[in-house]
Amino acid sequence: MEMMIDFPGGARVDAHFGSFTVRTDQPPAASAPTPFATFLASLGTCAGIYVLGFCQQRGLPTEGIRILQRMHSNPFSGMIEKIDLEIQIPPTFPEKYRSSLIRSAELCAVKKHMENPPSFEVTTKEVTIA
Prior knowledge:
- The protein has 130 residues and is an alpha+beta fold.
- It has two domains: 1-32; 34-115, 2-Layer Sandwich (GMP Synthetase, Chain A, domain 3).
- The protein is 30% helix and 26% strand.
- It contains three helices and five strands.
- The protein has helices at 35-58, 98-105, 109-115; strands at residues 4-9, 12-17, 20-24, 66-73, 80-88.
- It has a three-stranded antiparallel sheet, with no helix packed on it.
- Helix 1 packs across helix 2.
- The protein is elongated, with a radius of gyration of 19 Å.
- The model has no long low-confidence stretch (mean pLDDT 96).
């Protein structure tokens, strides 16, 4: 997979891949989420895809189900040390599926990549823009 990152003006930085554009911005005049907020949102939404698929495969309604994501930061470094994903379910959600619902959310590809992070290589290359 390849993404093209560009700088459309101000503090905006956008990522383009396929037919999609993910827009990011920085305060104080942000018109989009910051890149880090977008990254954090990818954790909860990825888990949500797995929860949604679990429910759809079993014919379980998703009405009233949501995921509350909490980030816990180290007060000295400001780095996030723990992320909680709380799957909120209605009282009518079958008890027998609750632990399986958690296991499905734990299959999230973003979470798995954070647990075994890739290596990074940053380089430069001169290109002529026509």
